[in-house]
Amino acid sequence: MSSTTTTDDIKKAALGQTIDGKSIALTVRSELTQKLSHLTPNDSRPGLAVMLVGNRKDSQTYVRMKQKACADCGMVSFLEKYEDVEAVTEEMLLAKIHEWNEDVKVHGILVQLPLPQTIDEAKILKAVLPEKDVDGLHPANTAALFNTATHAGTAKLNWNDFSSIPFHIPCTPQGCIELLDRIGMEIEGANAVVIGRSNLVGLPVAMLLCHRNATVTIVHSRTKNIETVVKNADIVVAAVGRAHMVPASWLKEGCTVIDVGINSVDAPDTKRGYRLVGDVKYEE
Predict the structure, then answer these.
(1) Are 206 and 194 spatial neighbours (Cβ–Cβ below 8 Å)?
(2) Alpha-carbon gap, residue 256 to 259, rounded angstroms
(3) Where is 276: in which H helix or E strand?
(4) Active site residue: 20, 96, 112, 181, which one?
(5) What does pTM read for this prediction?
(6) Is residue 135 annotated as a catalytic residue, yes or no?
């Protein structure tokens, strides 16, 4: 828990008040900035390389946020944009990833998803070195995340300390757990419902909650009586990518909600002509 999170903050969160994600993010960045401040001019600064293909508004927003976070913390970022979807080829993307794999200034590689349908997404992700796959989507990192280490002779990992995990974990799912930890939410023993089963968020966040000993249910488009399932949850992670899918009536009093959704809806009255909203309808 961060030094800026008080007992009152935790009580307010439990009573259905908004979790101050921006404040928590600032605290995390401040902690990271402090760590990086010890680097000398001769030291290599952490470098994040991002690949952006196409012109999706949500993807562009994600990438801008990541670049800003790097700058705020004193990290270096590299952005390669391929705006002409018709002209981009797998060979072009693979060549850039190979270049980044070999570049000592690049410590992490992030391929912004989704990629165009003409591109073999799995092939591109597999080309990233596992040790540079900061989104945790390489098959080796995915397999490691989904290993519960329940069989004899397998070393147990400390899932209460992400810094001790010897492989990359998907960023957004890890952020969800970080938010829960920093507001003092007791994950162990809680009923957790994850809405969405994507490889990016739904499945990995469900696995992280399972590693923390929550009882986890994954809700998807074929789930029967979704409202009833969600109403039983102490923790709800909405990661389905559908604007305002979850109404307040689905949530039981006192549950904790993490809304991962970033959806673009038309808003002619705004400068950009659109507004970003989540999966949960907070206005109700």
Answers:
(1) yes
(2) 10
(3) strand 274-277
(4) 112
(5) 0.85
(6) yes
